[in-house]
């Protein structure tokens, strides 16, 4: 009797295994083989419509499927990303999201303001690539946010040409902020009413002071730079004089500086009190000859020869014509 | 004058012109015939222009052979005409350029499109071919809804999207099939580049 039971149970087991094998092999695959929708085989107009109906997150995920989908979606960027191509992208939160603020034109009614898009960092990079957006505006509220953004930026820096930072971090210095960005090409730092631009092309680092208040941050001088430019707004107040006096007094450690320019807003700067403020503490020699600058060409007299206190460098202060405007230059040698 | 005193006029009902509805006959590529009202046809810009150009009278419609639609099969055409009949007389939507586009799928359309993806694909082709704007809108909206919340890997499965490797392989195969000599030249060029030659010639 037990033998018969065992035989019967074996028979059942064998039958069960056989049926299971048949179902797995033939039935299940057929059930799973539901006809799929070949999106890329749709007519172009229909494909475009499908894209336009999709949510931005879905579009970005779709574009991540392959190079082909990325390129195809790029074709539609004019319609889908039209509003974003000239916008500044704001990095606000440090919770793994980028917020996109599309700048609205004045013609629009106030109530038509769209809420900012929130995207995960991976999709944000894809968004920037698809939209061709090359300017990122950053609002940094704390050190963690700064580090988050810098690490994101350092991975995707090829997508971005310039970064706008609104620095409101009390204890952070300009130097702290800028050194976070490994390969920055153009960094615009806005600190209160101050605005600084940092440019880097082929390792030639330059700083542009767009506008600033009475004083510059001390750490500013620590940044390596080969050229510095003061805009007309920054020129008329102390920072320009501070910088020049510091350079002459050798308190600026940067000795790489080769080019110094400033937009001149006064007709005869050399006769102003400001200029005497610069020169009163240093020896200078008036040069009354025309000479040729390697970049700016013929320089008419007078020029003023000055020397750093550490005797390492000398410079010629001069004025030159730049697109019809008079600029101040310093030739360092 | 009171209502009671108003003159009574006998109306000959037969004398009132009754607008006769015209039904056009269409034939799918698998020889299935459909009768579609004139009003329903207006939803399709292509068909509307076609029937206008033909200038059929009621007799022509009955006596002449059905208008053949070569590119669409009977099953798909049935769905298309069902949709057109249901939405006849409705205004054709104009694209306002808003992105993303906002379109609601009505209950009838949702039921009509409760079909397998293969047929949905054909329906979109038909809507595009016959230029039925609203049908194209709702069917594309349905396709777009399939992508909601899906990861790239899931999207590849849903839409049968080839990966980069598959794309490359297909491209190579197509090149080889098209011009074997071009492939040889390319290989020769690569070989020379490896050997350090600056110029191919």
From TrEMBL, chain A:
InterPro entries: F-box_dom. Residues 36-84 form the F-box domain. This is F-box domain-containing protein. It comes from Caenorhabditis brenneri.
Automatic annotation (TrEMBL), chain B:
Keywords: Ubl conjugation pathway. It comes from the Eukaryota. InterPro entries: SKP1 (IPR016897), SKP1-like (IPR001232), SKP1-like_dim_sf (IPR036296), SKP1/BTB/POZ_sf (IPR011333), Skp1_comp_dimer (IPR016072), Skp1_comp_POZ (IPR016073). Residues 134-178 form the SKP1 component dimerisation domain. SMART domains: Skp1. Residues 169-194 have a biased composition (Basic and acidic residues). Gene3D superfamilies: Potassium Channel Kv1.1, Chain A. GO terms for biological process: protein ubiquitination; ubiquitin-dependent protein catabolic process. Residues 166-201 are annotated as: Disordered. The keyword ATP-binding does not apply. The keyword DNA-binding does not apply. Residues 26-88 form the SKP1 component POZ domain. Pathway: Protein modification; protein ubiquitination. It holds the Pfam family Skp1. Belongs to the SKP1 family. Probable essential component of SCF (SKP1-CUL1-F-box protein) E3 ubiquitin-protein ligase complexes, which mediate the ubiquitination and subsequent proteasomal degradation of target proteins. Regulates cell proliferation during embryonic and larval development. This is Skp1-related protein. It comes from Caenorhabditis brenneri (Nematode worm).
